[in-house]
Amino acid sequence: MKYYKDILALIGKTPLVRVNNITKQHKIKAQVYAKMESLNPGYSVKDRIGVSMIDWAEREGVLKKGGTIIEATSGNTGIGLALVAAVRGYKCIFVLTEKASTEKVRYLKGLGADIVVCPAAAKPGTPDHYVATAKRISEETPNSFYPDQYNHPENPAAHYRTTGPEIWEDTEGKITHFVASIGTGGTISGTGRYLKEMNPAIKVIGADPYGSIFKTYKESGFIPEATPYLVEGIGQNLPVGNADLNTIDEIINITDRESFDMARQLGRREGIFCGGSAGTIFAGALKVAKDLDENAIVVFIVCDTGEHYLSKFHSDEWMKEKLLLEPQRISAGLIIETKNSGAPGQLIFVGPTDTIGAALEKMTESGVTQLPVLDDHHSVGSLKESRVLTKLLQNRDLLESPVSEVMDESFPVLDSETNLAEIKKKLQKAPAVLIEDFKRITGIITRSDVLELQK
Ligand SMILES: Cc1ncc(COP(=O)(O)O)c(C=O)c1O
């Protein structure tokens, strides 16, 4: 029989996959390879440290039968630890920040873990911070193990023992550049140290979000004030024990926009469906690779799977809400769906036989200055408050007349697939456009809706 003794036996030995289409488009001569950590059984690079830290705790007698594992995690380390806990019969409590995606939280619960969520804004060192909370819970829980991935030597050691040698062997020692992110620093420090020991000429590059401290801290020794960013699991607001900045030759800052764009492109154009940090790293890898020749071999880490972020940056709605969606992907349908912060309001309209008085009342009630005139879900005209009032000044009796007597021509009607550029073009001339789905008018987009997208 061919089988694995348990799920943990599947951790590691992840393949290298060559990136082809995106590098070609960027006219990159160097070979760029993705180290597919998303193919681990918990779908992230963190499976490696889950098992190594628990092996250590068992060896040292820190974790005994029936014990509880407690950790502060952005989700993936929790998944790695929970896999081991499930196989070996431990309980788990994980402390996350609100930033962790719902998918990761449900995944952890699916693996049997208990979850505590802390405010993302809590400052390090304050009692509400997720690391302080995890520490406190571990102190209060008998027979518990608090791995502390930020400082535990088995974190970088796991990568020194496994990730580094795998990359060295799979590239037959030809790797020239290694690009990774810096969360706890375990991946880049452990893998980087191994690779540099094998060949000191190998360049180790960290890709880090704008807002994180690492670049300034490495280059000047000064710890700047961190600012928020959206990519999960990487960057820090304070130095961490496992981030050995001496192993890193250079740190490149990457914006949220670039990170998510690159992660989305890896899915669409290479079939590598990954998380946002892989996008940060890939963006860094492309910046490094663009100046290299065809002999260069750049390996970057795909830290985790895109499935953890289906409700986040892999959702057009979420990207639009964060003002990060590429304009060519903003369709009329998407604007309508996500108008009013995701709670689509009802389309306000009048019929051609409604009285002008009733139409004006509707405008006042709903705070709008223009209305589409619809007849059986089709657009037959439009009303603009200022024009109606001008006509009323001349003839007040019009208040009782039907809307059809004073209405102007219909607002332009567009298909729900129409893109932002086309919508903007129409809005140069008309104050609003109507959106049609299956031959029924389903929504209206005004100039202010479009301005809202570009705040
Ligand atoms: C999604 C994701 N990417 C990257 C990393 C960074 O890895 P490391 O902690 O080894 O620096 C993490 C760490 O938590 C992560 O969750």
Number of domains: 3
Number of strands: 15
The portion of residues assigned to helices is 25-40%
Bound molecules: pyridoxal-5'-phosphate
Percent of residues in beta strands: 15-25%
Architecture of the largest domain in CATH? 3-Layer(aba) Sandwich
Biggest pleated-sheet summary: 6 strands, mixed
Task: Using the alpha-carbon principal axes, give the shape.
Answer: elongated
* Integer-rounded radius of gyration: 28 Å
Please provide a written account of the structure.
The strands form 4 sheets. The protein has a 6-stranded mixed beta sheet with strand order 1-2-10-7-8-9, sandwiched between helices. Strands 5-4-3-6 form a 4-stranded parallel beta sheet, with helices on both faces. 37% of the residues lie in helices and 17% in strands. It contains 16 helices and 15 strands. It starts with 15 loop residues before the first strand and ends with a helix. The site of pyridoxal-5'-phosphate (PLP) has 19 residues, from helix 3 and helix 7. The site of pyridoxal-5'-phosphate has 19 residues, from helix 3 and helix 7.
